[in-house]
Amino acid sequence: NAKSKEESIEAVVQEYEKFSKVNTSTLSSFTDMPLSKATLEGLADSGYEQPTEIQAASLPFSLTGSDLVGAAKTGSGKTLALVIPLLECLWREKWSSEYGLGALVISPTRELALQTFNTLNSVGRHHKFSCALLIGGTDVEFERKRLGSVNILICTPGRLLQHMDENEQLNCDSLLMLIIDEADRILDMGFKKQINAIISNLPTTRQTLLFSATQTKDVNELSRVCSPNAVFVSVHENS
Ligand code: ADP
Ligand code: MG
């Protein structure tokens, strides 16, 4: 019921201050983190028990509302590092279909977008958010009609811009969180102009997370999409 739901959100959020200062090397299990019951169960059901290094290093900031630039090599678990704070952000706000779009994830390719979509649906199985993929190669008309009630969008830059230009169903005004995944690849693929155009359509009061496999000059330049107080977390291969 509504009252106990509110109390459980409050109890989790009360842990945030301590968590934001935690010694990340001591985080050996997701159950040590202040997470909703729905997310903890989704993680367990999906077979995730221990956070990887980038997850342990970034979640104390991303979960507690900071903007973050995270760099760690391919295969280090950056997808969960973005899926968890996304789910928790909408959960804290008691987001539901009538609130519209709450979170946007931009991926460089259809394949990576689909992988993120699958991880989000697996870990988020006990939450009730609606999630859609906008990746091209599918029927634009079909996508168009559903967009008005979607809470989470995972998309490639070109297809998102197409909808931003043509589709009045897509309303980003209440967006809470923007996530740019595999930012180095997005820039390598020449999407810088598209990303800038997308950002100009988004509210400025939002949380922004940017993940990348490498910390190139271009990625550092793109990190201006985050607030000036953004936290930079980088996990190196031999650390
Ligand atoms: P990246 O985006 O950094 O390249 P992914 O998010 O695609 O990495 O994760 C790589 C692999 O690691 C995936 O198969 C994923 O299921 C697995 N993985 C991620 N986090 C964990 C974890 N905490 N425990 C076990 N396996 C994990
Ligand atoms: Mg990835």
Describe this structure in words.
It is a single chain. By secondary structure, the protein is α/β, with parallel strands linked by helices. It has a single domain (2-234), classed as Rossmann fold (3-Layer(aba) Sandwich). The protein has helices at 2-14, 16-19, 37-45, 53-62, 78-92, 110-123, 140-146, 157-166, 183-188, 192-199, 217-222; strands at 68-71, 103-106, 131-134, 152-155, 177-180, 207-212, 231-234. A 7-stranded parallel beta sheet has the order 3-4-2-5-6-1-7. Strand 3 (131-134), helix 7 (140-146) and strand 4 (152-155) form a beta-alpha-beta unit. The longest helix is centred in the middle third of the chain and has 15 residues, at 78-92. The structure holds adenosine-5'-diphosphate and magnesium ion (MG). Magnesium ion binds at residues 78-79, 181-182.
Tell me, what is the CATH class? Alpha Beta
Instruction: Give the name of the CATH architecture.
Output: 3-Layer(aba) Sandwich
Q: Radius of gyration over alpha carbons? A: 17 Å
Hetero ligands: adenosine-5'-diphosphate, magnesium ion
Instruction: Give the strand content.
Output: 5-15%
> Which runs of at least 5 residues are low in confidence (pLDDT < 50)?
none
Our count of domains comes out at: 1
Assigned CATH superfamily: P-loop containing nucleotide triphosphate hydrolases
